[in-house]
Amino acid sequence: MLVVTDSGSPDSPSPLDEPAAEAERLGGVWDVVVVGAGPAGASAAHAAAVQGRRVLLLDKAEHPRYKTCGGGIIGPSRDSLPPDFKLPLQDRVHAVTFAYNGRYTRTRRNERMLFGLVNRDEFDLRLVQAAEQAGAVLATGVTVTGVEQRGGGHRTALVTAADGRGFEARAVVGADGSASRIARHVGVTFDQIDLGLEAEIPVPPQVVADWAGRIHLDWGPLPGSYGWVFPKTESSSLTVGVISARGDGEATKQYLADYIRRLGLSGFTPSVESGHLTRCRAEDSPLSRGRVLVAGDAAGLLEPWTREGISYALRSGRLAGEWAVQVAEAGDAESVRREALNYSFAVKAGLGVEMRAGKQLLGAFERRPYLFHAAVCLVPAAWRAFARATQGHTTFAQVLRQYRAARRLTATAAR
Question: 334 vs 43, 153, 182, 340, 378, CA distance in Å?
């Protein structure tokens, strides 16, 4: 609403008009409402908006914001980005130093880049901007409390917020993280929960230069645990973290402290210290309910062994956005159910197969991590498979299916 001054010229809206203008901007029935503006949510919003649909993207935080994450962009992540997306790379990784709980160190190198490293605040912001450029409307500062299915003549779902507002949509995508309110509505269940701890450590340029182009992976002392160092060369910092099964937080904290000390980094003060839980879905966990789909961490979609989640978020988010459009256009309950099931089938046929292989690898790794360390350090074929998987040329599922030695290693380690 424009205010006209005494001279007859339009002025900016007064503060009293702003709530009404905001209500009008966010009102009406949306084709798709996406809850959560991380990689999964931004990808879903982009995928729906490029089809010309009316899309609302909700998030409780303002971007850019810090996110606990190593920030590794592997091949499948790169291939799932919007067209013409410019990655804000902090470094390009060509080498990996492997260690077995601080010992038996070996560095392997590859002529071609293995993957890139980003700061999540920059990366997520650009994904949100890409969704906005495609036509999605962003609303931040919105804490979503739940969702209600509306039947009868409505044929919509209502997303509710803590401030009492409601956002009506013909389809909803829940991408609001591992503690998702939307996932509770859908009934997502998890069979693997891990604790990740991370420190963002600013270091002098000469220190970060020693790490340029190289990451560190340490197979840890706790079952299924490992640690990592990801250099952020452009911002002169090192992201150091560890992950292990939830249940022994003190031991995980000690592992991180020991890891930082062994690396010679305990003399530097972290700028951020954080932690988070990663949740991996049970194989029979639902991915939809009525007009509501879930994607990314909200759906428990991540690689079980490495706990890599960005590529799973981008890929499932894009699928969710595409199928949400089909759900929005469905005219009756049976059609809605069919399109939602099609989304579930698409996820399970791709990401589900990869997750099944990852759980096999994790089970074997928990028992005999030294066999995995020996393989990547001493067996050229194993190192090549690792490199090709990070580059996006193959998957762990394909490695297990195509290479007898990989199946034998996994079977031997799992005994």
Answer: 27, 15, 22, 10, 55
- Determine the distance from the C-alpha atom of residue 390 to the mean position of all C-alpha atoms in its chain, rounded to a whole number: 16
Q: What is the pLDDT of residues 191-227, one digit of tens each?
A: 999 999 999 999 999 999 999 999 999 999 999 999 9
Computed on alpha carbons and rounded to an integer, the radius of gyration of the chain in Å comes to 23
Note the pLDDT of residue 169: 97
At how many degrees (to 10) do helices 310-329 and 39-49 cross?
Answer: 40
Contact between residue 397 and residue 354 where contact means Cβ atoms under 8 Å apart: yes
| Cα distances (Å, whole numbers) of residue 68 to 40, 199, 222, 232, 294 | 15, 9, 21, 14, 21
Q: What is the pLDDT of residue 2?
A: 33
Express each pLDDT in 365-380 by its tens digit.
Answer: 999 999 999 999 999 9
Q: Quote the CA–CA distance of 294 and 37 in Å, as a whole number.
A: 13
Q: What separation, in Å, do the N-terminal and C-terminal C-alpha atoms of the chain show?
A: 70
User: Cα separation of 346 and 389, whole Å?
Assistant: 21
Q: What is the pLDDT of the chain when averaged over all its residues?
A: 93
Question: Residue 131: helix, strand or coil by DSSP?
Answer: helix
Q: Which residues contact 147 (CB under 8 A, 6 or more apart)?
A: 35, 157, 158, 159, 160, 172, 174, 181, 182, 185, 292
> How many angstroms separate the CA atoms of 251 and 89, rounded?
33
Beta-carbon contacts of residue 148 (< 8 Å; ≥ 6 apart): 157, 158, 160
CA distance 333 to 223: 46
Q: Are strands 166-174 and 29-35 parallel, antiparallel or unpaired?
A: parallel
Whether residue 19 has pLDDT greater than 80: no
